[in-house]
């Protein structure tokens, strides 16, 4: 591959007297991790040496998240810390991309508070980044490409995969749903689907490269194909990909319940290479709150959907996202969320306290509930889920599952993941990125332990 768009930076880096180091820090969701893998791929190909600590870096990139205020504050803190790095190494270049900088007021704030930031780059046009870096190496100044909307899909990237066992493959970008609490449609732009031929090409390459887990990504994978010509949808894409020969497992994230169809469940049931675990965010168990969130389904419809999926794929497990303390959520609404969680019995849950995002519709809603009440509700929800998760753990003990070995944890213990994403600590070392039959021997405080069986 030639990657002509890298030529300018390649020439510029070749003229340096030494190889320059690149450091990337990624915040937020898997879509961001996937973008960073492409940014790393491009810049490595152009000549940068990819390192894992910022101190020795000549180019520092932050790929940011805007979903909650907490994530943003973390980024501001970390950009603040870069002042010392820049003082020690004035020639270092700092580039900030990701969802945060697509908000105009944030881009302005970064420029005002941190004048040592060199580049703000568009997440929807990362191919422009190499030229921006080359220009900045030539000439000091602030380079900003974040405030232009772009709808074109970029292809043809070298990719550095973060993990050996997993390949992220984006299938669609953006979101048209405008859930009232969510900033994503404003920062990621309108929904657009990648060409199925390009997805299939990258998919086959990932299988040949030996990645055992292939994760298809999109803010709303179930609406894949909506704007493409021809007869294409997510179920058809999945079936087409799962026909590829090889020993691997397909996962996908994230599904919106309003677009999850029986056709999708049947496709999963018919293809053993597709994971039997679905992340299906419900957000709330109160129909009133779901309406205020603009989620387009009622609590009853969501439960019916889960029941239909279980009928079609009996072994399926679910995980979910839930927001606690959305504006106007009463005690009764919250109790309905608890009821729903108990009814559905999620294998795992990602819970968030509502965070006001300026520019969204919910930001203008009355929000009289004190923060303390919200944190209490949050803790109650966690306790309920903890109990459910422990019951799941007890069921696993004594059974054997085919798991994917994901590497060694900080304590030097090899870990593997079950199909439902539960992590198991193994009794002996097994190479990363292999499937192994693991007999679950015990569970303790949400940790599972297992023996490798041949
Ligand atoms: N406040 C809290 N949580 C949010 N999420 C998205 N926007 C917000 C917000 N403003 C959560 C949703 C979504 C997940 C990725 O983040 O649950 O599914
Ligand atoms: Fe945000 Fe809703 Fe789109 Fe998910 S579906 S990215 S929560 S607007």
Fold blueprint:
Layout lengths: L6 H8 L6 E6 L3 H17 L2 E3 L7 E6 L4 H20 L4 E6 L5 H10 L5 E2 L8 H10 L4 E2 L21 E5 L1 E2 L10 H5 L3 E2 L2 H13 L4 E5 L16 H9 L6 E5 L8 H9 L6 E3 L7 H6 L6 H14 L4 E8 L6 H14 L3 E6 L17 H26 L3 E9 L5 E4 L5 E4 L8 E10 L2 E7 L1
Parallel strand pairs: 1-2, 1-3, 3-4, 4-5, 5-6, 7-10, 10-11, 12-13, 13-14, 17-19
Antiparallel strand pairs: 8-9, 15-16, 15-18, 16-17, 18-19
Helix pairs in contact: 1-5, 8-9, 12-13
This protein binds 5'-deoxyadenosine (5AD) and iron/sulfur cluster (SF4).
How is this structure best described in words?
- By secondary structure, this protein is an alpha/beta fold.
- Among the domains are: 142 residues, Rossmann fold (3-Layer(aba) Sandwich), CATH 3.40.50; 57 residues, Beta Barrel (OB fold (Dihydrolipoamide Acetyltransferase, E2P)), CATH 2.40.50.
- Helix content is 35%, strand content 21%.
- The strands form five sheets. A six-stranded parallel beta sheet has the order 2-1-3-4-5-6, sandwiched between helices. It has a five-stranded mixed beta barrel with strand order 15-16-17-19-18. Strands 7-10-11 form a three-stranded parallel beta sheet, with helices on both faces.
- The longest helix is centred in the C-terminal third of the chain and has 26 residues.
- The mean pLDDT is 95.
